[in-house]
Queue: 2 jobs
Job 1
Amino acid sequence: MLKIAVYGKGGIGKSTITSNLSAAFSFLGKKVIQIGCDPKADSTINLLGGQPLLPVMNYMREYERYPASIAEVSKIGYGGVLCIETGGPTPGLGCAGRGIIATFNLLEELALFKTFEPEVVLYDVLGDVVCGGFAAPIREGYASKVLIVTSGEKMSLYAANNINRAVNNFADRGYAKVRGIILNRRNIDHETEKVQDFAVKNGLEIIGDIPRSRDINHFEDEGKTVIEGNTDLPISHKFLDLTRMLLADEQQRGRL
Amino acid sequence: MLKIAVYGKGGIGKSTITSNLSAAFSFLGKKVIQIGCDPKADSTINLLGGQPLLPVMNYMREYERYPASIAEVSKIGYGGVLCIETGGPTPGLGCAGRGIIATFNLLEELALFKTFEPEVVLYDVLGDVVCGGFAAPIREGYASKVLIVTSGEKMSLYAANNINRAVNNFADRGYAKVRGIILNRRNIDHETEKVQDFAVKNGLEIIGDIPRSRDINHFEDEGKTVIEGNTDLPISHKFLDLTRMLLADEQQRGRL
Ligand SMILES: Nc1ncnc2c1ncn2[C@@H]1O[C@H](COP(=O)(O)OP(=O)(O)O)[C@@H](O)[C@H]1O
Ligand SMILES: Nc1ncnc2c1ncn2[C@@H]1O[C@H](COP(=O)(O)OP(=O)(O)O)[C@@H](O)[C@H]1O
Ligand code: SF4
Ligand SMILES: [Mg+2]
Ligand SMILES: [Mg+2]
């Protein structure tokens, strides 16, 4: 099972990248689960035709109990991708990452992975602070690889550095490792050099280079990923290449 | 004592706004303390000639105890402003806001406010998640007013909404109230309308409108606020006007 956590500063493009990766994996015939781990709860919206699904925390606030089945807090979206949103607690009250912890407990209780048998699981995780629930996907065997989405902007690289340090602080526990950086361009001055500098300083590889793309926004307005929109576009090829590379990566490690 | 907490999305300009407000209050003859509550720990850097000061959490990690005096974790900067940085825990390990809680405990133990007798206290607080230590400045009588710094960008307004909701969730406890919004421009399309829309929807006032300013960046490169750089600039007048308005506001409430 390929289990990847996508981290990055809020607004940097995690959900865009993650939902397009999910769609691309599915397009290649893989069985996928995408779990949104951002209180914004809109990670999977473009796999669901623009219709947000009820987050786990919202369900629990409304019904004051855990859902009895995964169906109550999930939806099958584009290409058969199973979509889940953790949501978050009421602002200001309680740990912001609590929704992730509650959701992970629920998924274990309902034995989701055993029942659905995914080949790929993608976690889309807020990376402004890597603590509490936001650190959970790295720990406890949930993800084996972390991808850091960043632009060349100072604030985005600061968050990327924080995420990398957080993952490294768990290095001796067999938790997830940072597989690489996805440069999601904002078209600022010397963006390539700035991100390459950061990558080199931290011994990381830039495994994806996503241009600023009108196609992304166009299909987003239709509640779609670019994969659902048109797999022949150059931007769609970027995501398909990235998924193939991640699958090959996984197979190679399997042989070790 | 005028006690203000400045919140906003990471990178939106909180420290720029807060350090210029501190400098402006000091220029008007007020005694000021600025407390950086962002793990980035660079809130006060432009009041200190570009030299970052040792954060409280770093001190505690190094010496494994609380500082014995405030002097060990503070510095007098431009205009006599007392500068403090909370810092944060090691990434991934422990609540990201822990530095704020530790610092607040320290300040009480050392009776800082009694000794220094500030007329203005400014807290510069990360607003991407309002939980744990990041919610502390709102609670427990630390700040009486919250200013939300935002641009017209979707992600920034999302954070602003979250901050506003968090403050409102404490409405019945006599905690801090949101005084207003500071629009710190990013020059995106329809920025004024987007922020006005948000303000109207949430019953908030836009009390400051800060243009994108080369002067800010120019003096930042010299480790200065624009107030220290040149109080005759239009951008400096913006900050001086805002401080006068906040002081008048405070006086008016005092009469009630
Ligand atoms: N490469 C890109 N080109 C154009 N727009 C993008 C790109 N990446 C992200 N965006 C846009 O930026 C906004 C924020 O992206 P999102 O994926 O929601 O960020 P996050 O999940 O990190 O908060 C979205 O509206 C999205 O369409
Ligand atoms: N109005 C502005 N004009 C020009 N640059 C600005 C303005 N506001 C902020 N900046 C720049 O944006 C960067 C981030 O601002 P900062 O105050 O550090 O953000 P925050 O404290 O919210 O993380 C700084 O380099 C600063 O110079
Ligand atoms: S652990 Fe992180 S998310 Fe939880 S309360 Fe602390 S700062 Fe907030
Ligand atoms: Mg997202
Ligand atoms: Mg700051």
Note: The CA atoms of residues 66 and 151 of chain A lie 38 Å apart.
Job 2
Amino acid sequence: LLSARNLERIYRLGGQTIHALKPLNMDIHRGDFIAIAGPSGSGKSTLLQLLGLIDSPTSGEVRVRSQAAQGLGREQRASLRLNSLGFVFQAFNLLHMLTARQNVEIALALAGCPRRKRRARASQLLESVGLGKRLDHRPLQLSGGERQRVAIARALANDPEVILADEPTGNLDSQTGLEIVRVLEDLNRAGQTIVMVTHNLEIAKRAGRLFLMRDGGMREVDPEDPTALD
Amino acid sequence: LLSARNLERIYRLGGQTIHALKPLNMDIHRGDFIAIAGPSGSGKSTLLQLLGLIDSPTSGEVRVRSQAAQGLGREQRASLRLNSLGFVFQAFNLLHMLTARQNVEIALALAGCPRRKRRARASQLLESVGLGKRLDHRPLQLSGGERQRVAIARALANDPEVILADEPTGNLDSQTGLEIVRVLEDLNRAGQTIVMVTHNLEIAKRAGRLFLMRDGGMREVDPEDPTALD
Ligand SMILES: Nc1ncnc2c1ncn2[C@@H]1O[C@H](COP(=O)(O)OP(=O)(O)OP(=O)(O)O)[C@@H](O)[C@H]1O
Ligand SMILES: Nc1ncnc2c1ncn2[C@@H]1O[C@H](COP(=O)(O)OP(=O)(O)OP(=O)(O)O)[C@@H](O)[C@H]1O
Ligand SMILES: [Mg+2]
Ligand SMILES: [Mg+2]
């Protein structure tokens, strides 16, 4: 469904060369529930942004359904991002002048959802992440964990084939975090593919497949193997 | 050193009245290491911002060394914030056009630290949180956990009497998070008072005093009592 071939990302800053992602291969199959864990700065967000077509690699390619994304035109990539991929940003990236509901509605509008359906769908999504009483709050009138949950609801809005979530529970207590993971597990059982970056090893162990990153490199381990997560 | 008396914070939004903090009393003694935990939206950031004189209460008062902060003039409050309190924001609040080092240096400059000393102190602080190789990166060129650590280094810059940290490890893997907590514990042993909001119960249990919040209310529990953190 989504794969990486010799995917590499180098940043150059002043005199420094940072190998944020070393050449990497990865295959994501339809229906997978994948967790990616690793230390701060190890390249997790870099990888997720490349898979989400939000960033371009220094070399190598991302393939969507076996077709190289690098070969697609701007409109096709934008259409993929809008319709097939749902991205939860580590820094949330909400629009500050819109309310929680409007932030979700705008994602629906961009994907062509008719107006009369948008309000109901946005409310239902926000309720599913516990924000039913915060629909009319703007981001600055929400707690950190509430903003995080608006970002999650927005990523789910268009029923994307693949949900790419960058630390979706980092600002949540364990109870609320578990509720969010259950929402994702329900969606996965219903057919959605999930790739979740997480520092929370309790959550990472619940995934169907687990990848560990370190210094721009990645390897797959068995989520049920307690020694894998040292 | 720092205390709350009948401290209350109500937000009014459209027709809604939100009791973010119900009338609360709290005494923070010099040398305390306090953790505050609780569900998303329970009022932790609201309380911390009131204690840090960043927000004003709806009723009640915050006292600094037994003197009501509400009675102080603007300049005195600003001086307290600058010199006696170090605040780590949940959303980091870094200046995007400045590098990591400059973000820390600016805090030192505002507090009157002479120029020749600022650069060395900023570098040393950033190294202590593992960012020695990221001094010249701007926030958008840093990972989420790296930005979080810049925010921590900045709060420590002026050697404040009280460090108020809002979720300082939320974007960090357990290893890096533990390193940060050890930095705070070292500072605490050397005499600095620490109030840390955290969702991480492993970290919360290490504190000298533990408070649990729920729906704007708060109670103190024994950090060594395993049943307290259900
Ligand atoms: N635009 C950039 N320019 C230079 N270096 C960058 C840039 N963006 C990221 N980096 C560096 O690349 C490395 C990997 O960043 P990335 O955001 O992928 O880490 P991460 O694994 O998501 O970390 P965290 O867990 O802290 O979010 C980091 O060390 C970071 O400093
Ligand atoms: N400016 C505001 N206007 C209206 N409501 C607000 C405002 N700021 C915060 N709130 C509400 O007050 C409640 C407490 O917010 P607070 O940020 O203190 O929670 P928190 O315990 O820090 O949560 P988290 O763990 O998610 O960071 C939340 O439900 C939030 O929606
Ligand atoms: Mg990241
Ligand atoms: Mg908060």
Note: The interface with chain A takes residues 11, 13-14, 16, 37-41, 44-45, 90-91, 130, 133, 136-137, 141, 143-146, 149, 166-167, 170-177, 199, 201 of chain B (CB under 8 Å).
